[in-house]
Amino acid sequence: MQRQEALELVKLNVNNKNLINHMLACEAVMKGLARHFSEDEEKWGLAGLLHDIDYNLTMTDPFEHGLLGAKMLKEKDVDSEIIHAIEAHNEMTGVERKNQLDKALYCTDPLTGLIVAGALIKKEKGLNAIDLDFLKRRFDEKGFAKGASRIQIAACREINLSLDEFITIGLKSMQEIHQDLGL
Description:
Elements: H1 3-13, H2 17-37, H3 41-50, H4 55-58, H5 67-74, H6 80-88, H7 100-120, H8 132-139, H9 150-154, H10 163-176, H11 178-181
């Protein structure tokens, strides 16, 4: 599947603009990680872009989130590694994270939420108004961006990145598409 087809599929299945922006942010971070690790940027980007393709359909059954998306994507002949990463990004599916792609998507998912929340509390409401130090302070605040699992973000160590390295790659990647994200 090519990126344009994936984006059209996202827009067909996801009706929440903020969720689409989250998926675009995950795509950007996954591409940044792929560059860092000399991996396939297109493959990693597609995993980020498509990971929540089934969210509207699984909101009331979180145990199916990722599994239904994988089924949808199998019908579109999407790469099996992307499909596995999507199944494994939701711990409730019980699908084991086996490789770098799986583990990267797992820790990237909540990182984008933390970064967006950080940008939104600044008066400028922009990604260029925040930096690593700012985000590290927010990371340690239990009441900030409660939905962004710190345990899941800290799983970046499973892909051999320190928290500082991971946040830096994530922020830089999202800053590169700040206009697309409206931030």
